[in-house]
Amino acid sequence: MSLRRTEFDAELDRLHPQLMRSAVVLCWSSADVEDVVQETLLKAMRSSDTFKGQSSLLTWVYVIMTRVAAEMNRKSRRKLPSDYGSLQPDSLPPTVREVTVRETGRAIIDAIRALPTRQREMVTLHLLDELTYAEIAGAMNVAVGTVKATIFAAKSTLRTVLADTDVKQRTK
């Protein structure tokens, strides 16, 4: 399946919000998020003729983005400080619900960012981009069983890490 150039560009524009969400997790620095998404879109446009439609466009572009983010992370050599969690305030003064939700989201993003690369990529595809295990397997060129095992391990790690925070499990 080959999309005409204008349709392809329109589809890429439609994916922008999903790519931004994923880039927030994949990038070690929030300053790199927009750059990674823009570089990803640029690379996708340049190589549009290689998209054969064997996976969804989102999956194809996400694979490009994981490579771009990994390269950006390597170049910048930015890492979260080992004491990053301890730098956060132990208790917040009474706040509106929006601030609490934002802090909860930050704790979850930080926990996902701390996962090993493969787990982080797969859990991002599954939880944020809502891809099926089969779609992830196709995108990452691994067996579906590998995806299931990797996501299971990632979720177990996230449960353990987030158990020490006020983040409550909403779904199983």
First-to-last CA distance:
36 Å
Radius of gyration: 17 Å
* Overall average pLDDT: 77
Helix content: 55-70%
Plain-language structure description:
The chain has two domains: 5-76, Orthogonal Bundle (Rna Polymerase Sigma Factor, Chain: A), CATH 1.10.1740.10; 92-163, Orthogonal Bundle (Arc Repressor Mutant, subunit A), CATH 1.10.10. It contains seven helices and no strands. It has helices at 5-26, 33-46, 57-76, 97-113, 117-128, 133-140, 144-163. Helix 1 packs across helix 3 (57-76) and helix 5 (117-128) packs across helix 7 (144-163). The chain is mainly α and 172 residues long. Residues 80-97 have low confidence and may be disordered.
Task: Write the topology of this structure.
Elements: H1 5-26, H2 33-46, H3 57-76, H4 97-113, H5 117-128, H6 133-140, H7 144-163
Key structural traits:
mainly alpha; Rna Polymerase Sigma Factor, Chain: A; 172 residues
Summed up, what is this model?
This protein is mainly alpha-helical. The protein is built from seven helices and no strands.
